[in-house]
Write a structure and sequence with these properties.
Blueprint: H1 3-14, E1 16-20, H2 24-35, E2 39-44, H3 49-53, E3 57-58, E4 61-62, E5 67-68, H4 72-90, E6 95-103, H5 107-116, H6 120-125, E7 126-132, E8 137-148, H7 150-158, E9 165-169, E10 182-185, E11 206-214, E12 224-227, E13 229-235, E14 238-242, H8 256-269, E15 275-284, E16 293-296, E17 303-307, H9 313-330
Parallel strand pairs: 1-2, 1-10, 2-9, 6-12, 10-17
Antiparallel strand pairs: 3-8, 4-5, 6-8, 7-8, 11-14, 11-15, 12-13, 13-14, 16-17
Helix pairs in contact: 2-7, 2-9, 4-9
Bound molecules: flavin-adenine dinucleotide.
Flavin-adenine dinucleotide binds next to helix 2, strand 2, helix 3, strand 11 and strand 15.
Length: 346
């Protein structure tokens, strides 16, 4: 090869990214890379169960403690902009904003809600408190919560056509790391971190189960009800109810105890008529400190990880994708709390 061809080849490989995994993390990263002008080789293999079972809720507030997550507004703005951009590019609809009605059980919780609602971020998200007669509950209305229909989103991204995108059905292996292309592992909960110098206990995956019910009379149809479990309206009188958290028995099989828990919690909220349609389970890729795992894998010059977003992948992945891209290609810093360096194997 002539020297000029080598230079062209080198520059081209500098602008290329190989994305591994077709769940929410890989799809969002691949789309953001494409939009940012990179050439993307996207390897997908296996069913992204976690992303398909997920409720798809994008909420900046930890409801138990009424505490906004770090950089809440940046995550909300970036994710909203990203999903709306992709909707307009593809002419498909998969993201919307809706209220979440959080049950306030005690006077203390009502008081905390009122105090929080006066903070600068609280003014934007924490809305009015009202009594719902049909549920016989006091509800705090959380505004501007996002809902991503993950099934439609994944379908849309898999169908994306671009001269800069090459979608390949193939299982990646470490022996495939034999060129200069930046490789970003978005493998979800089954990823084996050991070979990459990240301690195995960094990952603490959490199994989650949901049920889908049909009810013509469930009273909250315009938003998500939250209290013990969430009840998410899917349209056509269907609702997704979830979810459980368990750290043992890690598999994608619905369990009798999961079903019992979900039904019991749902019936504490409402006693009307409904039919059970389906029961699903998957495993969330959660880390030990519940923070994402994003950045270069130690000791590899062109290997990165984009994983560990737990229950906040819909909210966090769009901004973290852009930050990882800027880190890999422009040398900018990533927030230290997401760095794989915090889990270096000893
Ligand atoms: C019950 C439940 C409810 C949830 N609710 C929400 C919610 O409301 N909001 C939210 O944001 N998150 C929610 N989550 C979490 C969310 O689902 C996950 O954080 C997210 O889907 C993880 O996406 P991922 O791409 O990392 O993993 P996955 O969806 O698991 O996808 C990883 C993909 O990579 C593939 N892969 C692995 N290894 C390779 C390889 N070597 N080569 C090629 N491909 C490979 C896998 O086969 C898989 O297809 C929920 C999860 C559960 C279980």
């Amino acid at each position: 090869m002539k020297a000029t061809h080598w230079v062209a080849f080198f520059i081209e490989s500098m602008q290329r990214i190989r994305v591994i995994g077709g769940g929410l993390a890989g799809s969002i990263f691949a789309m953001q890379a494409l939009e940012s002008g990179y050439t993307v080789e996207w390897w997908t293999w296996g069913r992204p169960s976690s992303s398909l079972v997920a409720a798809g809720i994008s909420n900046p507030l930890a409801l138990k403690r009424l505490k906004f997550i770090q950089r809440a507004e940046d995550f909300m703005n970036s994710s909203r902009a990203f999903y709306h951009w992709l909707e307009s590019e593809t002419g498909r609809s998969f993201y919307q904003t809706l209220p979440l009605y959080h049950i306030l059980y005690t006077d203390g919780e009502i008081n905390d809600w009122e105090v929080k609602a006066e903070s600068p971020l609280g003014e934007k998200y924490l809305g009015r408190i009202s009594r719902n007669a049909e549920l016989n509950r006091i509800l705090g209305e959380l505004n501007n919560v996002g809902w991503l229909d993950t099934e439609v989103f994944l379908e849309v991204t898999q169908e994306m056509k671009s001269p800069s995108l090459n979608l390949i059905e193939r299982c990646w292996n470490i022996s495939d790391l034999n060129d200069e292309i930046e490789t970003v592992l978005c493998q979800g909960w089954k990823s084996d971190t050991l070979p990459f110098g990240i301690e195995p206990k960094a990952f603490n995956p959490a199994k989650g189960e949901v049920i889908i019910i049909f009810s013509e009379s469930f009273p909250i149809r315009d938003g998500i009800l939250h209290g013990g479990v969430f009840v998410l309206p899917l349209g056509n009188h269907l609702y997704k109810i979830g979810s459980t958290y368990t750290w043992d028995d890690l598999n994608e099989l619905p369990s009798a105890t999961g079903l019992e828990f979900l039904i019991e919690e749902f019936e504490k909220l409402w006693k009307g008529e409904y039919h059970l349609i389906s029961h699903l389970a998957a495993v969330r890729p959660t880390t030990r400190d519940r923070k994402p795992l994003v950045g270069r894998v130690p000791n590899y010059k062109n290997l990165s990880v984009f994983n560990g977003m737990g229950s906040r992948a819909v909210l966090m992945a769009p901004l973290l994708s852009l930050e990882l891209l800027a880190h890999l290609f422009e040398g900018s810093e990533l927030p230290p709390e997401v760095s794989p360096l915090r889990f270096l194997a000893k």
